[in-house]
Design brief:
Bound molecules: adenosine-5'-triphosphate
Shape: globular
CATH architecture of the largest domain: 3-Layer(aba) Sandwich
Number of strands: 23
Oligomer: single chain
Largest sheet: 7 strands, mixed
Keywords: ATP-binding, Nucleotide-binding
Organism: Jannaschia pagri
Strand content: 15-25%
Number of helices: 16
Protein name: ABC transporter
InterPro entries: AAA+_ATPase (IPR003593), ABC_carbohydrate_import_ATPase (IPR050107), ABC_transporter-like_ATP-bd (IPR003439), ABC_transporter-like_CS (IPR017871), P-loop_NTPase (IPR027417)
CATH superfamily of the largest domain: P-loop containing nucleotide triphosphate hydrolases
Helix content: 25-40%
Structural class: alpha/beta
Length: 504
């Protein structure tokens, strides 16, 4: 059998970094092939090479036996290669169908395109309304747009860069069914994920990268998750340490917070009340699009709310903007890393200053103290093991996981009184995810309050003291995490609130 894709000696260097070093392997038709490696191992660079976004310095590729050197994504797509990115490349102001049409060489009339989108999304179980504006969709729904856009191209190789990090377990199952169907139809899938259990359930071959090189190949179905993790990192991974829970006084109090959605299709927050005490981690679970972004916005100060709804240590911050809240000690790290949490084309120093300026004293008489900003950025880089040539690198040049470590580290190191994070370990490898969770737990152990909004239930159960769920903008009454069972969580996520599971 001719391999679908053959890579031979692919090498790519960036200033100060060898992103890919002499990479060779094959992908067979219909194969679901995992590409594994810790943050910065070179996975994205390699798949961008296959997709025509990066030109390798050396090496060659063959697709179905023929030389393959796409000079741009359009050439890769024409050859049957499609890709779903870790960061979405959609225009928020346009509708689903308009976005899909933009990626096509010769898009059909809008009405036909809308029908094709409906057909494909139904065939593959990925419900999508072609007329909705992308800006109003949740992360999970945006990903569906990207996937459907790819499926319309009838790809022979579909590349997916961390597709499940924005999905609920149920949505992930739907995606796996889609991918298995595609593979049964003969398409190959190159699949990047840090979730090793899902790799083991889905993929039949795996190539492991470390420091830009291939360090191993295996059948993940026959390799344990611990083994895979060790081969990626080269050392053993330690689990998070539990911490004593000695809870202090209430720090953050949210009382009867209701907010109309910022956009037509957003989610309204409905009478949200919660309390976070010193030393506590409150976990908020829920399916994306149920008000997570709105809640983060209402806590960070991007959205203001009625007087008395948001208070920190008794100080009413409901009408205070983000800067005033930061000065008071209420910090937030949003889900969307590039664009929202970090300015892509600014250096890490500038990005560190963006949120750290007041708490770290980085300005004097209205002027940024560059040296101080650089040291702060460097401190984040060192303490959070952000792999980058230095603080002068742009946010955009970092691998996804490394940027996430930077964004979380930047907030944690500002010694917040209360930190609110949304999807803190999105796209972060297992070792770094453990380090981020540990940092959040250390923060709480030091007396801060932490709110973790996440779709990752295992993560929430691992770090939270109390657990609550956000459903259609309503928060269920919090329960001690130690009492949570999967059944009970399922009911809470479904909006059944405090209901007990039925006893039979
Ligand atoms: N455009 C660029 N300019 C400079 N350095 C880059 C650029 N793109 C990638 N790099 C560097 O190349 C290395 C490999 O990055 P890459 O994004 O391929 O890693 P990755 O394995 O996909 O990581 P992650 O799991 O965090 O997404 C990293 O050190 C990264 O900082």
């Amino acid at each position: 059998m001719t391999a679908l894709l053959t890579l031979e000696g692919i090498t790519k260097t960036y200033p100060g970094v060898i992103a890919n070093a002499d990479i060779s392997f094959q992908i067979q038709p219909g194969e679901i092939h995992a590409l594994l490696g810790e943050n910065g191992a070179g996975k994205s660079t390699l798949v961008k090479t296959i997709y025509g976004l990066v030109r390798p310095d050396r090496g060659s590729m063959r697709l179905n036996g023929a030389p393959f050197a796409p000079s741009e994504p359009r050439a890769a797509r024409a050859a049957g290669v499609a890709m779903v990115f870790q960061h979405f490349s959609l225009f928020e102001a346009l509708s689903v169908a308009e976005n899909v049409g933009l990626g096509m060489e010769s898009p059909p009339p809008m009405r036909d395109l809308a029908q094709r989108i409906r057909d494909v999304s139904q065939t593959y179980g990925l419900p999508l309304d072609p007329g909705r504006r992308v800006g109003d969709l949740s992360a999970g729904e945006r990903q569906r747009v990207e996937i459907v856009r790819c499926l319309l191209q009838d790809p022979r190789l579909l590349i997916m860069d961390e597709p499940t990090s924005v999905l609920t377990p149920q949505e992930a199952e739907v995606l796996f069914a889609t991918l298995r169907k595609l593979s049964a139809e003969g398409a190959a899938i190159l699949y990047i994920s840090h979730k090793l259990d899902e790799i083991r359930a889905l993929c039949e071959a795996a190539t492991i990268l470390r420091g830009g090189r291939v360090v191993g190949q295996c059948d993940p179905r026959e390799t344990s998750a611990a083994d895979l993790a060790e081969r990626m990192v080269g050392t053993q991974i330690t689990a998070s340490q539990a911490r004593p829970s000695a809870l202090g006084a209430a720090l953050l109090t949210v009382t009867d917070l209701s907010l109309l959605p910022a956009t037509q299709f957003g989610t309204a927050l409905r009478q949200i009340s919660l309390e976070v005490r010193a030393g506590e981690i409150l976990g908020i679970g829920g399916v994306a699009g149920n008000g997570q972004d709105e809640l983060l916005g209402a806590l960070s100060g991007e959205r203001l709310s009625a007087l008395g709804t948001v208070t920190l240590g008794g100080q009413d911050l409901s009408r205070a903007g983000p800067d005033a809240r930061r000065r008071a000690g209420l910090l937030a790290a949003p889900e969307e890393r590039l664009g929202h949490a970090a300015a892509p084309d600014m250096s890490l120093t500038e990005n560190a200053a963006l949120t750290g300026v007041s708490r770290k004293g980085l300005a004097r008489r209205g002027f940024l103290r560059w040296g101080a900003a650089r040291s702060f950025a460097q401190e984040v880089i060192d303490r959070f093991d952000v792999r980058t040539p230095g603080a002068g690198a742009t946010a955009r040049s970092l691998s996804g996981g490394n940027l996430q470590k930077f964004v979380i580290g930047r907030e944690v190191l500002q010694a917040p009184r209360v930190l609110v994070v949304n999807q803190p370990t999105w796209g972060v490898d297992a070792a770094a995810a453990a380090a981020i969770r540990q940092a959040l737990m250390d923060l709480a152990a030091g007396g801060a309050g932490v709110v973790v909004i996440s779709q990752d239930l295992d993560e929430l159960l691992a770090v939270s003291d109390r657990f609550t769920a956000l459903n259609e903008g309503r928060l269920s009454p919090p329960r001690p995490a130690s009492e949570m069972t999967v059944d009970r969580i399922g009911l809470m996520l479904g909006g059944a609130g405090d209901l007990e599971p039925a006893h039979v």
